[in-house]
Amino acid sequence: MVSERLKLPDMSQTPVVTRFAPSPTGALHIGGARTALFNWLYARGRGGKFLLRIEDTDRARSTPENTQAILDGLTWLGLDWDGEPISQAAGAERHAEVARQMLAEGSAYKCFSTQEEIEAFREEARAKGGSTLFRSPWRDVAEAEHPDAPFAIRIKAPRDGATTIRDEVQGEITIGNDQLDDMVLLRSDGSPVYMLAVVVDDHDMGVTHVIRGDDHMTNAFRQAMIYRAMGWELPVFAHVPLIFGPDGKKLSKRHGATGAAEYQKMGYPAAGMRNYLTRLGWSHGDAEYFSDAEAREWFDLGGIGKSPARFDMKKLENLCRQHIAASDDAALLHEAEEFLAAIGRPKLTEGQRDGLLAAMPHLKERAKTFPELLEKAHFVLADRPIAPDEKSAKNLDDVSRGILAELTPQLQTASWERDTLEGVVTALAEAHGLGLGKLAGALRAALAGRMVSPSVFDMMLVLGRDESVARVKDASA
Ligand code: GLU
C-alpha cells in the first residue's frame, strides 16, 4: 500500500484562525466550553482570530434558545469571538455549490441508487461477511447512460492506498483508504450533508487550526477527502481527548453538573473556571494556578495530553478560591452582581453595593464561590434591626446582652481604630471573666446575625461607628 501523505500548510506565515463550532441541540457542556477555551487561547495568544459557527443544520433539534444559551455560556466564561456567529444552515446553497463543482470536476459523481438498493447491497454484504461500505454501481457510468431520475452526489473516494493525518495531539494516524466510502455530499433532495458543510465552512472562514474533541477524529479522514478533491489546504488538526469523570468514565450527568451554566449558577468565578478548564487536559510544567495572560502566553497544542483528563471538583474549588482572593474588589463586586442576576435574585441597592465593596477585602480571602462570599457579606447586605438566625441567636443570652449594653457607651467614645476597638472589647471580656471568644460571639450575633462573617473588628470598621453602635444597642438588654 502506498501511503499518501496529505499536503500540510506552512503555518509560520499564516495568521491563526480558530473556531468553535457547537451544535445548538443543547446547552453549553463543560467539554464544549473547554474546546472553545482551547481555541480561544490558541488564537488570542497569537494575535489570531477566534470565530464562532453555529452548526444548526439539524433543524429538528437546533433551537434559538440553545444557541442563546451557548452564547451566554461563552460570554460568562469571558470567551469573546470575532465578528458575528455564523449559521451553518444559512450556507446550504454554498455547500451545494461545492458539491456541484466537484461533480463538474470529476471528483464526485451522480448516484441513482435508491435507499432500497443500498439496503439490499448491505444485507448481501452482511450475509457474505464482507464490508458493508456501499460501493455504488454509478461511480464510473457515463453521463449519456444516466436515467432521468433523482440522484445523490457522491465523492469519489480513493479506493487503494492509505491516508495519513498528522494530528497535533494524536500524532500520525493512518487508515487504509478501503475504509473510506464514497460518502454522499448532496442528498437527492438537494440538501448538503454535514461533513461537506464543515469542510466548506472551515475553508471559507479561513480556519487554520481545528481544535476539537477526539470523537471527531474519524471525521477528519472523510473531511480530508473533500479538502483534497477541492485542492484546498488542510488545517492543522488537534483532536483533544474527552473529559472523564473521577471514576474514569466519560463525563456525564451521573457525575454531577455537566453544563457550563450550572457552574455559573453554583457561583464559581469565571477566572477560576477558565484556569481549571485550561488545566483539564493541558499542562505547562507543573503550573496549576495561573492568570489569563499566562495562559494565553503558554497555551500550545504540544501541551495537550493524549489521555483523557478527569474532572476534579476539589481542584476546581482550590483554583477558584485563589482567583477570588487575587481578584480586584470592584471586579468581584461586578461578578457577584452578575451571579445574583443569573440566579434570579433582585438587584443590590446602592447601599448594599457600597457595603459589599467596602467589605470585599475581608470577604474574598477564603471564598471558593460567590454564595460563600455573599454569605459572609450578610452583615453589609442586611438592614437593621438585624435578625439573628437560630445558631447565632444562641450567643445572645441575657448575660451577653447585658455586657453588650455596657459596651455601647464605650464604643461611642472609643477612637474608631482596630487596636483601640480590640482593647476595649478585650478589657470588657476580662472584666467579666470571659474569654474574648465568648464576647465576640455575642458581638458577631449583634453585628451580623450570622455565625459566618469577617472578624468583629473588621465588621465594625466597615460598618462605621453609628451603624455598629446602633446594632449593638438593638441586641443589648
Ligand atoms: N458541531 C460539532 C460538535 O458540536 C463540532 C464539529 C467540529 O468541531 O468540527 O461536536
TrEMBL record:
It comes from the Bacteria. One of its GO terms (molecular function) is ATP binding. CDD domains: GluRS_core. PROSITE patterns: AA_TRNA_LIGASE_I. It is found in: Cytoplasm. InterPro entries: aa-tRNA-synth_I_cd-bd, aa-tRNA-synth_I_codon-bd_sub2, aa-tRNA-synth_I_CS, aa_tRNA-synth_I_cd-bd_sf, Glu-tRNA-ligase_bac/mito, Glu/Gln-tRNA-synth, Glu/Gln-tRNA-synth_Ib_cat-dom, GluQ/Sye. Its EC number is 6.1.1.17. Catalyzes the attachment of glutamate to tRNA(Glu) in a two-step reaction: glutamate is first activated by ATP to form Glu-AMP and then transferred to the acceptor end of tRNA(Glu). ATP binds at K253. It catalyses: tRNA(Glu) + L-glutamate + ATP = L-glutamyl-tRNA(Glu) + AMP + diphosphate. Keywords: Aminoacyl-tRNA synthetase, ATP-binding, Cytoplasm, Ligase, Nucleotide-binding, Protein biosynthesis. Its main location: cytoplasm. Monomer. GO terms for biological process: glutamyl-tRNA aminoacylation. The gene is gltX. Residues 16-317 form the Glutamyl/glutaminyl-tRNA synthetase class Ib catalytic domain. The lineage of its organism: Bacteria, Pseudomonadati, Pseudomonadota, Alphaproteobacteria, Rhodobacterales. Gene3D superfamilies: 1.10.10.350, HUPs. It holds the Pfam family tRNA-synt_1c. Belongs to the class-I aminoacyl-tRNA synthetase family. Glutamate--tRNA ligase type 1 subfamily. This is Glutamate--tRNA ligase. GO terms for cellular component: cytosol. A motif ('KMSKS' region) lies at residues 250-254. NCBIfam families: gltX_bact. A motif ('HIGH' region) lies at residues 22-32. It comes from Limimaricola pyoseonensis. Residues 335-475 form the Aminoacyl-tRNA synthetase class I anticodon-binding domain.
